[in-house]
């Protein structure tokens, strides 16, 4: 097998090391099997949400408010 997320990993990070620095590049969503040949894991592309994340982080928002924040 290869490397991929498995059952129970949903919501976890997909990190990529670039020039010695680790970056959050994805969030585990779902997949079929665990690194099974011919099956792929599905991840949220964090870069699509950068502006939205910056807006949320620059406000005085509680956790409850973050969970109810409208998606981009």
Automatic annotation (TrEMBL):
Where the record annotates domain Peptidase S1, the positions are: 1-58
Entry GO terms, CC:
extracellular space
Gene Ontology MF annotations = serine-type endopeptidase activity
GO terms classed as biological process = proteolysis
Location in the cell reads: Secreted
Task: Kindly indicate where the leader peptide sits in this chain.
Answer: none
Instruction: Tell me yes or no: is Signal among this UniProt entry's keywords.
Output: yes
Q: Which Gene3D superfamilies does this one have?
A: Trypsin-like serine proteases
* Main location as per UniProt: secreted
UniProt superkingdom: Eukaryota
Keywords, ordered alphabetically: Disulfide bond, Glycoprotein, Repeat, Secreted, Signal
Q: How is this protein named in the record?
A: Coagulation factor VII
Per the UniProt record, the source organism is Mustela putorius furo (European domestic ferret)
């Amino acid at each position: 097998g290869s490397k991929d997320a498995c059952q129970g990993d949903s919501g976890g990070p997909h990190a990529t090391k670039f020039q010695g620095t680790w970056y959050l590049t994805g969030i585990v969503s779902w997949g079929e099997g665990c690194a099974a040949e011919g099956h792929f894991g599905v991840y949220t592309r964090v870069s699509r949400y950068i502006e939205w994340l910056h807006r949320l982080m620059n406000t005085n928002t509680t956790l409850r408010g973050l969970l109810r924040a409208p998606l981009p």
